[in-house]
Design goal:
Glycosyltransferase; mainly alpha; single chain; three-stranded antiparallel sheet
Length: 300
C-alpha cells in the first residue's frame, strides 16, 4: 500500500510539473494546447495538412487547437505563399497553368479582402487559442504577404485590380489594433505590426510576423513608390531597432514579447530576416543580432 501511495504521489508531482511547464511556456492555455497536440497526434492525417483545390488554392487542416476542432480552413498567408510558388514556376518555365493559378490565388485574396472604409482586411475565420484570438481575427503578416502576392500578380497580368486592392491592404497598417487594424502605435518607439491582432486578444508582438510585415511593405514600396508605404516601413524599422534587444535570450531569440523561446526553425528565420533588414537599411543593430543569433543557429 505504501509503494502504491508513493507511486501516486510521484505521478501527481510529475503531472503538476508538466502543467506548470506548459503554463510557463504557453500561458494559462498551455494544458489545453497540450490536449490538442495529443488529439492531433492520434487522429490527424499529417499527409493532408495542406492540400490544394482544383483552382490551385490551398486549404489547411488544423485539426485540433486545444479541445476545439478547427479542421480545414483557408489561410491568407498560406494562399500568398502558394501564389509565390506558382509565380516562381511561371517565371522560370513559362508554364501557363502556373500563371492561371497565380491569378486564381490573387483573385481569392481580392474576393476575401473585406472593405472597412478606406482599408481592407484578410480575416482569419476561426479562433486561435494560442493568443486568445476570437473568430474572426486579423494578421499584419497576412496583410503584408497579401501585398507581395498581389504585386506579383499585377506584374505578370497588369490587372490594375490587384494594385488597387493591395493599396487598400496597405492602409490597414495605419489603423491601430484597438480600432480594428493591425498596428500598435507609439509616438517615440515606432509602430509595431502585429501578426495576431484583435482588440480582445493578447498583445503578443510576434517577432517573425513583424519582420515579415516590414519587409513586405518595403517590397510594395519598391514596386509602387507609394510614399505611404515608405512611412510605414520607416516606422516599422524604428520599432524593430528599439525593441530587438528584448527578444534576445543569451544568444537565442524569443518568438514573442511574452517570453516564449523560438523553436530552432523560427530562430533561423530570425537570423535570416535580421540579415535582410541589415542589407536594406545598413542599421548596425540588425547586423549585431544577425551575428549573435547566427552563432547559435542550427545552420551555423
Amino acid at each position: 500500500m505504501k509503494k502504491k501511495t508513493s507511486l501516486a504521489f510521484f505521478v501527481g508531482i510529475g503531472i503538476i510539473l508538466c502543467i506548470s511547464i506548459l503554463i510557463i511556456y504557453y500561458g494559462p492555455n498551455g494544458p489545453q494546447l497540450a490536449v490538442g497536440f495529443i488529439l492531433n497526434e492520434l487522429f490527424q492525417d499529417k499527409s493532408n495538412y495542406i492540400v490544394v483545390d482544383e483552382d490551385g488554392i490551398p486549404i489547411v487542416n488544423y485539426g485540433f487547437t486545444g479541445i476545439e476542432y478547427i479542421g480545414s480552413q483557408r489561410n491568407p498567408v498560406t494562399t500568398s505563399h502558394k501564389l509565390f510558388d506558382y509565380y516562381s514556376d511561371f517565371k522560370k518555365t513559362g508554364n501557363q497553368k502556373s500563371k492561371q493559378f497565380v491569378i486564381n490565388n490573387a483573385n481569392w485574396l481580392v474576393s476575401n479582402s473585406k472593405v472597412q472604409g478606406n482599408y481592407s482586411i484578410l480575416y482569419y475565420n476561426f479562433s486561435w487559442i494560442n493568443y486568445d484570438m476570437p473568430n474572426p481575427w486579423r494578421s499584419a503578416m497576412a496583410q503584408g504577404q497579401g501585398l507581395q502576392a498581389l504585386v506579383k500578380a499585377h506584374e505578370i497580368t497588369k490587372n490594375s485590380t490587384y494594385v488597387i486592392n493591395a493599396q487598400s491592404l496597405l492602409n490597414s497598417f495605419f489603423v491601430e489594433v484597438k480600432d480594428g487594424g493591425v498596428t500598435y502605435k507609439s509616438p517615440n518607439n515606432g509602430w509595431w505590426y502585429e501578426e495576431y491582432s484583435h482588440e480582445n486578444g493578447k498583445d503578443s508582438r510576434v517577432l517573425n510576423g513583424m519582420m515579415y510585415s516590414v519587409l513586405a511593405i518595403y517590397d510594395y514600396y519598391q514596386y509602387t513608390n507609394d510614399t505611404n508605404a515608405k512611412i510605414l516601413f520607416d516606422q516599422g524599422v524604428i520599432a524593430l531597432k528599439n525593441n530587438l534587444s528584448t527578444y534576445d535570450f543569451e544568444g537565442h531569440s524569443y518568438y514573442d514579447s511574452l517570453g516564449k523561446p523560438s523553436s530552432n526553425w523560427y530562430h533561423n528565420v530570425h537570423v535570416n530576416l535580421t540579415k535582410t533588414l541589415y542589407d536594406i537599411t545598413t542599421e548596425e543593430i540588425f547586423y549585431k543580432y544577425y551575428q549573435k543569433w547566427n552563432s547559435n543557429s542550427s545552420d551555423s
